[in-house]
Amino acid sequence: MATITIEAKPRETGKRAARAIRREGWVPCILYGHHVEPIPFQMLESKLRPLIYTTETHLVKLQLNGKTWDCILKDVEFHPVTDRPLHADFQVLRAEEKVTVTVPVQIVGTAIGVQRGGVLQIVTHELEVTCLPKDIPAHIDIDVSNLDIGDAIHVGDLQFEGLEFEDAPDQTVVVIAAPQLGGVEEEEGAEGEAEAGTGTSA
């Protein structure tokens, strides 16, 4: 898992202060964790974006108040219209304490079913796992090589050392769907309409 170092600075709390921070290109944030009093801080929006718009989970070394904190981005609040980040939560990591994180799914291999005309459908793009900080994966590789048309992989099928999956065991992660036959159905429907059109009214 890659590590990103970010320099941040303390901030004032309150709605007015938060609006002022955002106007200047900063994002109000909070750092929290077990045995740690919540610490409000601010970071440049440009520094936050690589943690949001990514296909991998990152460890963050947050430099704040003369200290460096190992943490992860836990949650982000977005503006409903502009989709800009409004607020971010960071959780402090402790080597001996498990943490629950959301990890992106990455598909590996080419499914047998796809080679036979099936369609790969990724149903779940992220999975929630609980593990020790040292075991946090950058992403979870899902090998679909042996999947045929109609086959699927569910959360309950996944086994990775050190990871406990929090999603429901019957949650579908990926499925190989049968090829679409829309063109045939449309042609048959058109023929039916043509036959109906040749009838005469009484």
From TrEMBL:
Q: Which residues form the Large ribosomal subunit protein bL25 L25 domain?
A: 6-90
Recorded GO molecular functions are: 5S rRNA binding; structural constituent of ribosome
The annotated regions of Acidic residues compositional bias extend over 184-194
Alphabetical UniProt keywords: Ribonucleoprotein, Ribosomal protein, RNA-binding, rRNA-binding
- Per the record's keyword annotation, is rRNA-binding included, yes or no? yes
Q: Which stretches of sequence are listed as region Disordered?
A: 182-202
The Large ribosomal subunit protein bL25 beta domain covers 98-180
Task: Output the Gene Ontology cellular-component terms.
Answer: cytosolic large ribosomal subunit
Domain of life, per the record?
Bacteria
> In its UniProt record, which GO terms are filed under biological process?
translation
Q: InterPro entries from the xrefs?
A: Rbsml_bL25/Gln-tRNA_synth_N (IPR020056), Ribosomal_bL25/Gln-tRNA_synth (IPR011035), Ribosomal_bL25_b-dom (IPR020057), Ribosomal_bL25_C (IPR037121), Ribosomal_bL25_long (IPR001021), Ribosomal_L25_dom (IPR029751), Ribosomal_uL5_bac-type (IPR020930)
Q: Which Pfam families match?
A: Ribosomal_L25p, Ribosomal_TL5_C
Q: Which family does it belong to?
A: Belongs to the bacterial ribosomal protein bL25 family. CTC subfamily.
UniProt subunit comment: Part of the 50S ribosomal subunit; part of the 5S rRNA/L5/L18/L25 subcomplex. Contacts the 5S rRNA. Binds to the 5S rRNA independently of L5 and L18.
Q: What does this protein do?
A: This is one of the proteins that binds to the 5S RNA in the ribosome where it forms part of the central protuberance.
Question: Which HAMAP family is this protein grouped with?
Answer: Ribosomal_bL25_CTC
Name of the protein this chain belongs to = Large ribosomal subunit protein bL25
- Specify the species: Rhodothermus marinus (strain ATCC 43812 / DSM 4252 / R-10)
